[in-house]
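Entry 14. Ran structure prediction on the chain below.
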Amino acid sequence: MLKGHGIGSLVVSTTGRDVAGILSERDIVAALDDEGAGLLDQPVSHLMSRDVTTCKLADTSRGLLEIMTDRRIRHVPVVDNGELCGMVSIGDAVKARLDEVTHEADALREYIAHT
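Output, C-alpha cells:
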C-alpha cells in the first residue's frame, strides 16, 4: 500500500475512525534489520508503532513542525472530536509554514511601501 500510493506511512485503524497505530517505512526497515525478511509474513499489528503522536485540526504548522522535529517523526494523524480525519506529512507542514512566512513578508512589504 505504501508503494502503491506513494506515501511514507499508514494509519492503522480498527474502525476507520480510530488510531490504533501507525506503520511507517522506518518501522518496516527497522524490523527488517531486527528480524529479517520473515517479518513480511507478520501482521501489521506486529510492525506498527502503537504510541502515536496526533494533532488537531486547529493546531498550527509551527507547533506541528516543532513536535515533528522534537520527536523525529514525519507523519502525524489529524484527530478531531476523537475521530481520524486526515494525515499531515512533514512536507505538508513545511509548505504550510513557508506559505505563512511568505504571506507575512508580503504583508510587511506592502505596509512599508505605504508608510
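The domain at 2-113 is CATH 3.10.580.10 (CBS-domain). Will compare against last week's run tomorrow.
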